[in-house]
Automatic annotation (TrEMBL):
PROSITE patterns: RESPONSE_REGULATORY
Keywords, alphabetical: DNA-binding, Phosphoprotein, Transcription, Transcription regulation, Two-component regulatory system
Lineage of the species this protein comes from: Bacteria, Pseudomonadati, Bacteroidota, Sphingobacteriia, Sphingobacteriales
InterPro entries, alphabetized: CheY-like_superfamily, LytTR_DNA-bd_dom, Sig_transdc_resp-reg_receiver, WalR-like
GO biological process, one term: regulation of DNA-templated transcription
Species annotation: Parapedobacter indicus
The keyword Mitochondrion appears for this protein: no
GO molecular function (one): phosphorelay response regulator activity
Protein name: Two component transcriptional regulator, LytTR family
GO cellular component: cytosol; protein-DNA complex
Record's keyword annotation contains Transcription: yes
All residue ranges annotated as the Response regulatory domain in the record: 5-115
4-aspartylphosphate: residues carrying this PTM: D56
Length: 237
């Protein structure tokens, strides 16, 4: 599975198509979507699930430097044919800065930097504290496979970790948990289950299957009609 889900934004269609072709040669990179119009990217931003963005700086109808301020939790790789933007790009904590025309080896290095940046970010970000049966525990969201209503008390929730271990969160609702979990990475699939989107291996109209390192065999959960559209949107995004 690709380790970096990426968005490409460049108003020059030939440059965008060439960039897509180069990305297709990098096994760890999945291009989620490409945009040659920054306004369209902004309109869809909240519905897109991605880790990194290769972003042209100088575009009609949108300044890449300003757009990057909306991507605080993403690995931003700026691209431009104009070297005078370099200092401004790095002031925005950009992962890397590419000069056009794109070159495969240089793009590969940029994504390697993005991977390292994301690894550091994920090790510290998206963590939150919960009241549990073990007392106060700091939970890292990227370690969670799914969450279910506890059998003994509906006010409590069983958190299943990807390594196969469990944690009992005390007196918390799914709505409260979804506010704590990173947006677009978790999805409620029925009244009793929240699941990590990247743990899902397949789904039908009635069932969701998932797999992770500690599960042994694939697990299957019922998919309720009221959550079906949201799941399809997450999986297709």
């Amino acid at each position: 599975m690709p380790s970096i889900r990426c968005i490409l934004v460049d108003d020059e269609l030939p440059a965008l198509q060439y960039l897509q072709m180069l990305c297709s040669q990098l096994s760890e990179v999945e291009v989620v979507k490409s945009f040659n119009n920054p306004a369209k990217f902004l309109n869809e931003l909240d519905r897109l699930d991605f880790d990194a963005c290769v972003l042209d700086i100088r575009m009609p109808g949108g300044n890449g430097l300003q757009l990057a301020q909306r991507l605080k939790d993403k690995a931003v790789i700026f691209s431009t044919a104009y070297k005078e933007y370099a200092s401004e790009a790095f002031d925005l904590d950009a992962v890397d800065y590419l000069r056009k025309p794109y070159q495969l080896d240089r793009l590969e290095k940029a994504f390697a930097k993005a991977r390292d940046w994301l690894a550091v970010r994920r090790s510290t970000a998206h963590a939150f504290e919960l009241n549990t049966s073990k007392g106060k525990v700091r939970v890292k969201s990227d370690e969670i496979a799914f969450i279910e209503v506890a059998a003994n008390d509906r006010r409590d929730k069983e958190i299943a970790y990807r390594d196969g271990s469990w944690l009992l969160a005390k007196n918390i609702t799914f709505d409260q948990l979804l506010l704590l979990l990173p947006k677009n990475r978790f999805c409620r699939i029925n009244r009793k289950t929240i699941i990590a989107v990247d743990a899902i291996t397949s789904y039908t109209q009635q069932w969701v299957s998932c797999s992770f390192s500690g599960s042994g065999m694939p697990l299957r959960f019922p998919l309720s009609a009221q959550y079906r559209a949201d799941l399809k949107n997450r999986m297709s995004g």
